Amino acid sequence: MGGNESQETNGSLPKSIEIPTIGEPWVEGTPFHMEVLQVNRQLTIECIKPYLKVFNLGGLTLKREAMIHQLYQFSQDCNAWKTLYVARPSRYRDQATGSRANRPSAKRARDQFGDDERLEQTTHASKRATISLPDHRTDQDRDEAEDWMNLVLNEREANTASTSNNQATGPAIMHSSSEQQLTHESEESHIQIRRLERQMYNLKEAVTSGMADIISAVGHMESKLLTSRSTDNSSNNNAPPNRQNTLTTTSHIGMPKADESRADAPTASPTIPAEAVDSPESDGMKTVFLDELAVMFDPAKVPSIPAVSFADDIAGLARNWHSSNLLVLGGHGIPIKHWDKIYKAQFNIRKNAWKSFRSTYSDWHVHAPLRCLPTGMVTDNLHLQFMVNEFLSYPTEADFWRAYTNEAGRLPYQKILNKIEQKCVTSKADFSVDADAAREFFDHDLSKAPRSSRQGEVSFSYRKLGKWCVKKSNEEIAKAWR
């Protein structure tokens, strides 16, 4: 097994070298799959280097004769060949070993089903994949191969056309015409289909989120009603007999009877900010309101911040920004945009968790002026620029990468952030132009401008402690002037 038929003599080069075939598995007890390299003029340094790299032999800077001798010595060492294949594992997951293998249940399982077949595995996969050697074909060889390829394709197309004409019936003709129509769609049509898919996905997420909001709101309403009921009962029992009122019961939780007085009905609670608050329903629980969704959870069971990286998956960041299951609290998936409301120190849920994650979150949530936003993008928040919005402002993912690709390929994550930051710097420089134009229009006295900001008017003043103050920074003046 192994070895070469041709041996080295007097320091000359061997006629051929027999080595294991790269990428082929090896079965114990059988010969290795071998390939023979003929030592001739075609065996150049470029052909030898890939073998030296795969076999981890080194010597990539040696001369051709030294490389051939090094490869020949490796071909004579059969024991070294075994390092090219994956070794059989010593044990497998859920395998009964040691004292577990001697238990009566394990013995009965072996008697009934036999020994584990994985223990008898003798096939070893190759650690290395196949290598690609340099193409030594001449231009004439390539032309002949291309002519042969065109001849085969023309014959196949002719046979396909004749077969389709003979077998086409009514439904088949309709199917063929529809396929041709889809094949000849323009690039703009593909973009529209992609936009429609994105809108359908957003609609599905909105419906799912809406149903979760309804269920959460109903549960919150019921718990608030029960709490107010118990409070009213306790206060009524402590009052004098002549002041006690008879409280009516409810026909269903959270649904008062028709004869129930308006005073007993729960009033609408004011809007609660999106922050964690102590829940009255149970001790130690907190409730966080995220986009009007009430999520109740135990702070002691909040896990660490998910160890995720979107440096190579910006599309994944966009998908998980508004809807995500990477972090689940109280049976609800928490979108990435709300992670700061869970882990920041001011909410006192999980201390010191935000320090290491703050810089990463800032890269996803970059502060920038309005001019930094992509062209055509609509947003209600004029002071924030999200990496997510930058991605979603393009019709397709291909359009996004077309904007962030240079001659070397796709830009890495950090360079994309730098490019967005450069937009912000350019936008900040533009503030001075608009600010100077506004000052010149009002003869360098902005106090002459109207103080109200009614439609059609601009305002360069604001109230502070009951007094009117004039804006001074170029950014504020430019935004009012625009």
Distance between the termini: 83 Å
Strand order of the largest sheet: 7-8-9
Arithmetic mean of pLDDT:
69
The coarse silhouette is: extended
- Helical residue percent band: 40-55%
Question: With helices defined by DSSP (H or I, 4 residues minimum), what is the helix count?
Answer: 14
Low-confidence spans: 1-10, 233-275, 277-281, 366-385
Work out the strand percent: 5-15%
Any overview of this molecule?
Residues 227-238 have a biased composition (Low complexity). Residues 93-143, 159-190, 226-281 are annotated as: Disordered. Residues 108-121 have a biased composition (Basic and acidic residues). Residues 159-181, 239-252 have a biased composition (Polar residues). The protein has 14 helices and 17 strands. It is an alpha+beta fold and 482 residues long. Among the domains are: 1-90 and 100-133, no CATH class; 368-481, no CATH class. The strands form 8 sheets. It has a 3-stranded antiparallel sheet with strand order 7-8-9. A hairpin with a 2-residue loop joins strand 10 and strand 11 (332-333). Helix 13 (413-441) packs across helix 14. It is extended and about 100 Å long.
